[in-house]
Every structure is written in structure tokens, then in C-alpha cells.
Amino acid sequence: MSALRLLSSAARRAPSALAQQRRGYAEVADKISLSLVLPHQAIFTSTDVVQVNLAAATGDMGILANHVPSIEALRPGLIEVVESGNASKKWFASGGFATVHPGNKLTINVVEAAPLESFSSEAVRANLQEALKVAAGNGSEEDKMEARIEADVYEALQHALGSK
Amino acid sequence: MLARRSLARIATQPSPLGAAPKNARNMATLREIELRLKSVKNIEKITKSMKMIASTKLAKAQRAMQSGKQYGLANSEIFQHTPLETPAKRKLFIVVSSDKGLCGGIHSSVSKATRRAIANTEKPVDSDSPIMVIGDKSKVQLSRVLAKNLAMSFNQIGRDIPTFADAAGVADLIVKSDVKYDGISIVYNKFVSAVAYEPEIVEVVGENALKESAGFRAYEMEDDVTKDLAEFSLANAIYAALVEAHACEQSARRNAMDNASKNAKDMIDRLTMQYNRGRQAAITNELVDIITGASAL
Question: In chain A, which residues have their Cβ closer than 8 Å to the Cβ of B221?
């Protein structure tokens, strides 16, 4: 799938200046309108949020209100949404696109995502072993490529779960 | 005068085959009516159960459609900010229908909308614009009129709630094919209400058109992901259309089966009445025979 193909061009450069910052002072007045949607579920539809941290293919980044319009491909990783104050919710997403539109709107289309709490690290570890075995095995090139992508996703998941 | 009398004599002569028993005609008709009645009752049972099945499928399909619509709206946001200066000449039409029938006018509505769009004089498109059809029913209808435009067709989609994997597969095949186009129009049925639907055309901007659009240059991209964005948006748009069309099809099938059940019920009432009248007439005739026979003694 095209969403998974994006991952193979991932280059993890140094995080950009706005990465992982959290405003510790007074309540933020400016919010950005977020639409975080999955094919089978709409998590946010035009909800005003303070900050969104994304795992873009070009590096981790944070989006605040009045961000410059930009298009980012997402690699499998965490999406963290700060709605107000310090409360933030995390989802692990498989990949997709995040677009900041002129007019202070952020739309994120991802193929699959789930709250970080709902993942079990044992299952992740077991599946990672499986995928690495197939990737190093002697199947067809396509199968090995798919297993390599699978293994990358599980590694990202482990990283996300580890740094909870 | 002589002719008239001879005619009358011929009419009263018994037929060479021998007189048929008096009640034979009534019995044959009664048997026919009984057979018809049985078959219409069976049909009523079938259409009633199809209506039930369609109702339950409709409930699920509507829930999936709600999220699918939001997904499609978020996806099409970028196309609203990147309009084309010159409208696309060579459009690829993706017609969304399905393989199954007995759903009212679903398939013919998208086929007609496609034909109207190609014949449109206000916003002209190339007359040999390629068409790709999802679903055998519309493929058959379009191949009768626009056979030379048909580029590709897909089937076995729409048996159950469409998934993103279906849409991604379709988008993948479209992108891998050699079909040339400036823009893409997806023709599908929009869900207006549980009893109404109407055909709708959604525009998807292709990779080259995105690059040429002035609005697109306002967006910053660290790496050039235009191609990936175009393919991903196409899959998203196809998914949103598939899910909505599926919901429309289930609601149309439910309404069609509902009407069929009502008609079958009316037919059953009418036939039952006819059957009973015929039965009573036969009994009355037998009684008349017996009584005239008895009174002749």
C-alpha cells in the first residue's frame, strides 16, 4: 500500500526546532483546527487543539497554531495531541499524510492508528521476531521487502512504547 | 337467410372431438390460479427476507459511511486550496457501482451521470476520456454506449463494507496502468437519505496538475512528496466514494425489496379472491347440475 511505501524513504534527521516542546506557562490563546481521521474512524474533526507532535518522514516535528502551510509524509510513529493545558493523548499511526492548510487547519489522514495504551509489548516483540525471520529468510523479494517494512513498524512501536 | 340458418346449424352441432366435461375449463383455471398463488407467495417470502438482510446491512454501512465521509472530507481539503486555472481536458472517470442487482436504479444512475459528463457542453472533456468501472453492472451498461472509452474494470468489490485495502488496490492498479489523464473524476451515488440518493462527481487533482497549480506552491515540503501525496489522496477519495456508494446500494435494495413485497402481497390478495370466486362458481355449477338433474326425474 502507498502508505506503507512511504516508510522506505524514511530518513531520520535531527528533530526540527519546534520538536517536543510543551508550553509550560499561561493557557494558550491560539489553537489550530485539527482533523485526525482514519478510514474507519474519525478521531478529531475540526477540533481546536494547542499542539500536535508528529513523526514525519523528515524528522519529528511539532505543529502549533498559525503554522506555515506544509505537506508532510508520516512514518510509522507517534502522534501526540495536546488539546489544552498539559493533558496530551498519544496514538501510534501506521503512516499517512499531514497537511497544514492556509487558514490554520491541520488535516492528518492515516491508514491505521490506535491509542498507545492498547498495544501489548509482548505481542510486539513476538511479531518483530517473526518479521525479522521472514526478512532474513529465502522468500521472494516482495515478501522480504514487506517483512522488512513490517519489522520497521514493530521497531518504531517498541521505541514508542519504551519511551512512554 | 339460408346462410344464417346454416351457420346456426353448424354452431349447435357437437364438436368432432366430443364435448369436454362441463367443469373442465373451471378446474384448469383453478389449478393455474393455485400454482400462481403458490409461486407469488414464495416470491413474497424471498423479497421480505432480502429486505431484512438489506436493512441490517444498511445500518452497518451507514455507520461506516459516517467515518468514511469525514476521511474523504479531510482528504479533499487540499484540492480546495489548489484549484486549476485551466480545467482539465482529459479526465479519467472512475465509476463506482457493484456486481449485484435488485437494487433499483443505482447502477443506471451512475452510468447516466457518466454519459452526461462526457457529453457535457459547458465543461467539455475529451470524447475519448478513459473510463474505469468498479462493478459489473455498470460495466455492462457503459460498454453498450461508450465501449471504446472503457480502460479497465474491477469486480468483486462491494460484497461487504469496502475497506481501505480495496481502495488502495484499485488506486494501485490505476497508477500502474499506462492510462494518461489530466484529472480524475469519481462518479458515485451520494447518500441523501434512507429513501433517496443522487449521483455525484468528485474531482481529484492528479500529480502533474498539483505541481502546476498556484495554490500548491504555498505549501512547504522538505522532500518532494507530490507523487506519494497524489497516489494517497486518490486511494482516500476512492475509499470515501466506495463506502458511500455501498450504503446507497443497501438502502436502494431495501426500498426495492420493500416495494416488491408490497406488490407481491397485493397480487396474493387479488389471486386469492379470484381463486375463491372460481372455486365457489364451480361448486355452484355442480349444485345446479344436480338440482336440474333431480328435478327432471
Answer: 70-72
Give yes or no for A102 touching B (CB within 8 A): yes
C-alpha span between A93 and B173 (Å, rounded): 25
Cell numbers placing B109: 444512475
Residue B164 forms contact with A (CB below 8 Å): yes
Say if A63 is an interface residue toward chain B (CB within 8 Å): no
Q: How much is the ipTM here?
A: 0.79
Q: Is B65 left (phi over 0), alpha (psi -120 to 50) or beta?
A: alpha
Best of B79, B204, B229, B234 to disrupt the A interface (most A CBs within 10 Å) is: B229
Neighbours of A108 (CB within 10 A): 27
Q: Cα–chain-centroid distance for residue B86?
A: 35
Q: B221 CA to chain A: closest CA distance, Å?
A: 5
Residue A5 in grid coordinates: 511505501
Q: Which three cell numbers stand for residue B220?
A: 512547504
- Bridge partners of B220, per DSSP, are A70
- Residue A143 CB coordination number (10 Å): 13
Question: Are B221 and A1 an interchain contact pair (Cβ–Cβ within 8 Å)?
Answer: no
Could you read off the pLDDT tens digit of each residue along chain B, which spans 297 residues?
565 665 556 555 555 555 555 555 555 689 999 999 999 999 999 999 999 999 999 999 999 999 999 999 999 998 888 888 788 888 899 999 999 999 999 999 999 999 999 988 777 788 888 999 999 999 999 999 999 889 999 999 988 999 999 999 999 999 999 888 888 999 999 999 999 999 999 999 888 888 888 888 888 888 888 999 999 999 999 999 999 999 999 999 999 999 999 999 999 999 999 999 999 999 999 999 999 999 988
Q: B168 to chain A: nearest residue by CA?
A: A1
Do A70 and B75 count as a contact with CB atoms less than 8 A apart? no
